[in-house]
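Example 9 (inverse folding). The structure is encoded as follows.
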């Protein structure tokens, strides 16, 4: 037996699963999943990549679906559905239900998942995901996860901005009715210089926990509200209204398709 054959036998890639595994999140990046495996098994990232690539590379791009399935103990089909960057390596891609699945690369972007969803799923600080243009709000936990939220601590609480969540719901309805391509194209053409990162910055800079609106006494039910604050002064409530208006403008009004209010 030659030295080359012996080297190939010992460098054939992972043959045993790691002691601890974790299930990938839907549309998670490959790097994020590898980092969670590293944390769970208390090893270095270089050692894991070296194990997955049989010592031939230190690049995550060289990690194969089969090697990751062997090392993680997760079925290849589970990894193929969850990790968009490795999906094309599945042996039978024609048998997969890929319609409507998120694809890696532009126009999709990588952003951290909702920090509250992450805390339920794993002990990791963050999980990076591939997001489409309509993934801007976690409706379950009322957090902004759209452009501008580059770190979990940047995810503003929208509990006191219900109209922003309503805009997200209407945006999803437009996509179900007309498709991602039409809604994204018309929205991109009409937004112009208005960008969603500006909205994320506005949410972080403003008050995250606005006070609840006061309850009007029964005797004042028919009276008109008094004059607003002087020009140039924005109260907490006015800041919320301005931010809400920006969200509605960014997600609904400029889509280019008329819809009922």
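The amino acid assigned to each position is listed next.
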């Amino acid at each position: 037996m030659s030295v080359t054959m012996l080297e190939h036998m010992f460098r054939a890639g992972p043959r045993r699963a790691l002691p601890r595994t974790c299930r990938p999140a839907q549309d998670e990046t490959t790097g994020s999943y590898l980092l969670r495996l590293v944390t769970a098994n208390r090893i270095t990232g270089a050692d894991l990549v070296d194990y997955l690539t049989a010592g031939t590379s230190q690049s995550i791009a060289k990690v194969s679906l089969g090697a990751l399935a062997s090392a993680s103990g997760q079925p290849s089909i589970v990894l193929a559905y969850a990790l968009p960057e490795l999906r094309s390596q599945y042996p039978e891609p024609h048998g997969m239900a890929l319609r409507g699945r998120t694809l890696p690369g532009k126009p999709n972007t990588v952003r951290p998942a909702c920090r509250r969803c992450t805390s339920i799923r794993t002990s990791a600080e963050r999980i990076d995901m591939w997001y489409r243009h309509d993934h801007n709000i976690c409706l379950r936990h009322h957090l902004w996860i759209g452009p501008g939220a580059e770190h979990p601590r940047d995810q503003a609480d929208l509990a006191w901005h219900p109209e922003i969540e309503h805009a997200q719901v209407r945006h999803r309805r437009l996509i179900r009715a007309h498709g991602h391509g039409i809604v994204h194209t018309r929205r991109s053409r009409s937004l112009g210089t208005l960008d969603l990162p500006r909205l994320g910055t506005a949410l972080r800079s403003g008050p995250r926990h606005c006070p609840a609106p006061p309850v009007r006494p029964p005797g004042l039910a028919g009276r008109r509200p008094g004059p607003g604050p002087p020009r140039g002064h924005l109260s907490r409530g006015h800041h919320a209204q301005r931010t809400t208006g920006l969200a509605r403008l960014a997600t609904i009004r400029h889509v280019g398709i008329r819809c009922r209010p």
